[in-house]
Give the backbone structure.
Amino acid sequence: MKVDNGQIFKLHIRKGQVNIDTMQEYNLYYYEDTGRVWLYCPCGEGHLISIPTIPTGKGIAWTITGLSSGVVTMYPSILNEPCGAHFFIRDGKIIWA
Ligand SMILES: [Zn+2]
């Protein structure tokens, strides 16, 4: 089911190997080693997205703030091309674009 506008996503900070089996909807997983954020796409179709916050050499890296407080804002917006979901993460919430 499509996530409601303003839905809060809870932040988890992780280290080491990415473990997608333990990821759940309405949660954001920030991996310190790689600087990638993982989440289930808020379209509700069940695909995982990973977003770089450290430049990888291809494409852009997103800015992320609020890691220490747990209330994350990312910039710019996120467009998940396979399903067309386009949203912001602001103050720990999903805001549809
Ligand atoms: Zn999607």
Q: What stands out?
A: The mean pLDDT is 96. The beta strands are 10-14, 27-31, 36-40, 48-52, 63-65, 73-75, 78-80, 85-90, 93-96. The chain has one domain: 10-96. Residues 10-96 form one domain.
